[in-house]
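Hi team,

Filling in the usual template for the complex we talked about on Friday. All components are listed, including any nucleic acid strands or ligand strings, so the model treats them as one assembly.

SUBMITTER: L.P.
PURPOSE: interface mapping
COMPONENTS: three
RESIDUES: 862
SEQUENCES:
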Amino acid sequence: MNATAAAQLLHDSDEAGPREHYLNARYGVRSWLLTTDHKRIALLYLASITAMFFAGGAFAVLMRLNLLTPDGELVSAETYNKLFTMHGLIMIFFFLIPSIPAVLGNFLVPMMIGARDVAFPRLNLLSWYIFITGATLALISAITGGVDTGWTFYTPFSTTYSNTHVMPMAIGVFITGFSSILTGLNFIVTMHTMRAPGLTWFRMPLFLWSLYATSVIFVLGTPVLAISLLALAAERLFHVGIFDPRLGGDPLLFQHLFWFYSHPAVYVMILPGMGVISEIVPCFARKRIFGYGFVAFSSVAIAVIGFLVWGHHMFVSGQSVYAGLIFSVLSYLVAIPSAIKVFNWTATLYKGTVSYHTPMLYALGFIGLFTIGGLTGLFLAALAVDVHLHDTYFVIAHFHYIMVGGMVMAYLGGIHYWWPKISGKLYPEGWAKLSALVVFLGFNLTFFPQFILGYLGMPRRYHAYPPEFQVLNVMSTAGASILGVGYLIPLVYLIWSIRYGPPAPPNPWNATGLEWQTPSPPPTENFEEVPMVTEEAYMYGDRAAPYV
Amino acid sequence: MSDGSALAHHFEDLEQQHDAATLGMWIFLVTEVMFFGGLFAGYTMYRATYPGAFAEGSRLCEVTLGALNTAVLITSSLTMALAVRAASLGRPRTTVWCLAGTMLLGVVFLAIKFLEYYHKYQERVVPGLNFTYAGPSARQVELFICFYFGLTGLHALHMIIGLVVVAVMMTLVWRRRVSPAHYTPIEVAGLYWHFVDIVWIFLFPLLYLVDLHR
Amino acid sequence: MTSQLLPLRVYVTVFAVLLALTGLTTFVARIDLGFFNVIVALTIAVAKALLVALFFMHLAHMKHRTQLVAGAGILWLLILIALTMSDVLSRGWFHPPAGL
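RESULT (copied from the run log):
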């Protein structure tokens, strides 16, 4: 069953023939740049973050090429500092943090609750322009020479001693933060005030719960990053400041303020991915999700407890060991709701009718790789172990397993899952499966050796390393090249499918959820009439298999 | 003015729109709490570490002007609350007068604040510009003054934005775009203004009254 | 739209109390209460803030959801300050044995 059957379905439905939808309702650059349609704004974000993803990836390529040889002489040490800084900043602030919320969230939140748009459509467009402004400043900083402080901007190096382009970068990140804040605000208000009749909180798709939790983090955490970057900029600009030891200032104050946001930010960089998995797994296992309530509350728990653990980034920075103890215990606590979710997804798969469409391949990869990433976080949460593993490649492998093996795979899975709805076209399943496999293999080859390297003591942020580490580094670089190919293939076929892909029916996966009740692509107003919701989420029990 | 023009197309009715607008503003105010909060956290850290220097620095702040400004801002909160009340009762002229009073008091506040800044400049205690304080804890006193300027400066910036918002509200009321059925913009502007007042309520004792008895 | 607005006298009374508390906090600051000075000052500030929030901002009459949002903001600020201070205040507690 495939494109032919899908076309048949389309033909049989009312939606065959030329029809107005959100993509063709209005033409011209102005209709896109001045749109307030959440779906178009989602696509504006899609284009922007895809560009930033490949920019951040380019820096990674250069890093991995430099690390092919122990003397690391492809680039100078100073240049290498700039490479890992730019890679981190771009990937975190300009790709991962917006990714699922700004693309899939913007597109789907109103549709999943049966609304015509988000609560504040013009604010939504402003969010995108703020993002573009911040990203432009960041790219200007990159082009004019970059930053070498690490994405963490630690003081007093960033405020006093670094002579790279810290200011435009810090201000660029500061500005982009407001994009997140406004998106989070919009989502929270939308979900509270605009749900369709009958859609109670516990009938909502879990994707919305995870975005709600993400939005709470955006709203409570991002402002603290903003003030810490503002203070950093003030210190750098006016040579005054509150982090300067010469004034009696404490560099650790910066770290407290920075990590108060940046730790919850990592939950921003996984919760939406978990939400996507909660949509994909029931659909392709043809089964209600196991433990809906547990998954919903776990999302909120991760967001809340995630605000209480930031000090685990500072175990060896000079933080009091007693504070370290508190943060360590709380870090073990925050792992529990994540584990609960993994158990629930697994239980959903058990005795389900599993089909291996591309979204499901990414979801299955997520579950395994996120588990590895999450468990290795527990190693790092132990004070005594962290003393040895801090600032080594073990940490790098840990967070890449979560952010890339987890979040990016979830993002790709979600893009594929909702692609028919977003574009009105079907992507080529064969190529999609192939690239999912290439991504999985490339990813593991890139990052598993890094666990070993870290354990053996190779420090991060160094352009060179002892010769005995070369084999593992070469493996990692080889993996990175495969991973890069795995990311390029979807770029090609997804764009190809927009023009040449077979038209998609309204519900190619025969999935539950209000977004699948609309044509593909949906009309600008989403729903002709406000839908009434009468059943619980994920009622897959009686449904036939996916059509496509 | 009919209800239709006030209702945005994506909302079902004015009540939903009002709900969304007020919830949105409260959430925005929470982000502002966290924004100022970072500076409050830093202040707390350093006051605990350098209590003597913070007391010394606080002596450089003019209590009379600070107390006067507190009274000015509280009064402006009253006029703002009365503006919202007048708007809800359908009294546009009263609303405009109350908003004008709020603006006037806001301007007075800023004038007094900038007078204080000017005094600091004259006394040569502006960090990064002409800080020439002498004494064993001079560096930590400078740290305190950094917080003084940072906190009150950020607050003043929010005041200026508040003045612009109030001015816009005045034109809205003047053009009869506000009614008892739809005075949400005034209400939401009021929330913002009161928040700025609350920040100052904390800044006054934390900056001006540290160990005043010494 | 429900008008949750209050009688005029409520606003004026709250205003008067706010001015009185401002005078009180300034006056008390000149008396040496040692450690209690900062506690009194903060208590008065919190009281003033609550008056503005509950009556001028009508928080007392708003939906529970709104009250929860406001409360969450304050709670998160306290989390930031408390956990940061847990580091600052406990740094002197640990002295490594000689030789380490």
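MY TAKE: Chain B touches chain C through 54 residues (CB under 8 Å). The CA atoms of residues 95 and 185 of chain B lie 12 Å apart.

Thanks, L.
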